[in-house]
Design brief:
Number of domains: 2
Largest sheet: 8 strands, parallel, barrel
Number of strands: 14
Distance between the termini: 51 Å
Order of helices and strands: EEEHEHHEHEHEHEHHEHEHEEEE
CATH architecture of the largest domain: Alpha-Beta Barrel
CATH superfamily of the largest domain: Glycosidases
CATH topology of the largest domain: TIM Barrel
Radius of gyration: 22 Å
Strand content: 15-25%
Length: 403
């Protein structure tokens, strides 16, 4: 995130960006590579917020490590807020996913924080200092946030490679060979100027394939099914995330969805706490299906708590007064039911084989609401099956009668 405001995605969904917020991607402690896949964006949380994270069973938090706030003048650091967050997260057994970003004015000639540094050595000095300081607590580090948006990064894909990603990755590994580099943290926008797929191609073909250990991505869609189509199949001329990863030879790398979510402050647009809860339930279930083509190894919902500023959209699963929205309860219950995030079977009750036992086989007609319309016939079965859309996207059948 960065300066607070609104930006319209391709589907018109309002996005919120936090002031002076840089999102750092990191995890605390050993053995986190196989941790449960549940995370949430927290910005720079206090202990009360972290208590709510822990109570929900969420194991990973995304924290904002802002260069301009930490090093307000060259060589002068203020780690106090970050030391508190790291210690509080450690005490609660939470992993930190950290993103380093946003330039102080002294390093870029007084230009906006989205402008890269004039001297890349200032950036690498900061990165190395941060990684060294939290060497024993933080393993996973992300480099910048949504560089394909001018609001966050003023430059081209090559600028991002040369001034941020490649030197930053080298600095991370030099300070801690056990650390992991995450990126590129692109916003899933299809406009020519901000096209995520063109940026991803340029990054991985320009050296990012070797620099990045874990691929991260941001996507916001009102509809959960549309979101997963964007991840696995694409829409029309727009490729899926999986297709772009495959053509760049990085589909075997771990994949973290480090931003997604739904606001709750526009009932006329269907943005309500109840709809947010339904979307959380649907997303989490879809994410764990054993038929997934693109495995999401970790998700970080946006976000834990509402910003109290009136004009800022309310993305949190907690109200600003820390009372719970329905989505908080949904997330907590889902984690309790699926603590390890193991794959789950598609919850369909329809299939293509005769049902064993009383009742015998039964013919069912399935109408898919996907576009274009799809039809499939099958026999009532004990085992769930998925219908394969003509474009290759698998969708489980639902709602068939039990007898």
């Amino acid at each position: 995130m960065a300066p607070r405001g609104r930006i319209e995605g391709r589907n018109g969904m309002k996005r919120r960006f936090g002031t002076s917020i840089l999102l750092v991607v990191a995890c605390i402690g050993a053995g986190v590579a196989h941790a449960a896949p549940y995370g949430i964006n927290t910005h720079l949380p206090d202990e009360g917020v972290l208590d709510k994270v822990q109570a929900a069973g969420i194991g990973s938090i995304r924290v904002d490590f802002n260069w301009f706030a930490i090093e307000p003048s060259r060589g002068v650091y203020d780690w106090s807020a970050y030391d508190r967050v790291v210690a509080a997260a450690r005490d609660r057994g939470l992993s930190i996913f950290a993103t380093l970003a946003y330039t102080p004015g002294w390093a870029n000639g007084g230009r906006p924080q989205s402008h890269p540094p004039d001297d890349v050595r200032d950036w690498t000095d900061f990165v190395a200092t941060a990684v060294t300081r939290y060497r024993d607590e933080i393993t996973f580090w992300g480099l910048w946030n949504e560089p394909n948006l001018d609001h966050f990064f003023e430059g081209t894909p090559q600028d991002y490679l040369d001034k941020i990603l490649l030197p930053g990755a080298e600095a991370i590994r030099g300070a801690n060979p056990s650390a992991r580099v995450l990126g590129p943290e692109l916003a899933h926008l299809n406009s020519l100027e901000h096209n995520w797929a063109l940026w991803m191609d340029a990054i991985f073909q320009g050296g990012g394939k070797g620099a990045i250990d874990i691929v991260t991505h941001h996507i916001y869609r009102d509809d959960v099914e549309e979101l997963f189509r964007n991840l696995e199949v694409g829409e029309g001329v727009y490729p899926s995330v999986l297709q772009v990863l495959e053509r760049n030879g990085v589909a075997d790398k771990p994949f973290w969805l480090t931003e997604t979510g739904w606001p709750t402050d526009d009932p006329e647009a269907g943005e309500t706490p109840e709809q947010q809860a339904e979307n959380y339930e649907a997303f989490l279930t879809e994410m764990l299906y054993d038929s997934r083509k693109l495995r999401i190894d970790r998700v970080f919902f946006y976000e834990i708590i509402d910003d109290p500023t009136p004009e800022v959209p309310k993305w949190g699963i907690l109200h600003a007064d820390r009372t719970e929205k329905p989505a908080y309860g949904v997330y907590r219950r889902f984690i309790a039911e699926h603590p390890d995030g193991d794959p789950i079977e598609d919850p369909s009750t329809c299939g293509v084989l005769p049902r064993v036992g009383g009742g015998g086989p039964r013919l069912a007609l399935f109408l898919s609401l996907l576009s274009p319309l799809s039809l499939a016939w099958g026999w009532r079965a004990a085992s769930p099956v998925s219908h394969t859309h003509r474009e290759g996207w698998q969708r489980p059948f639902r709602g068939c009668p039990d007898s």
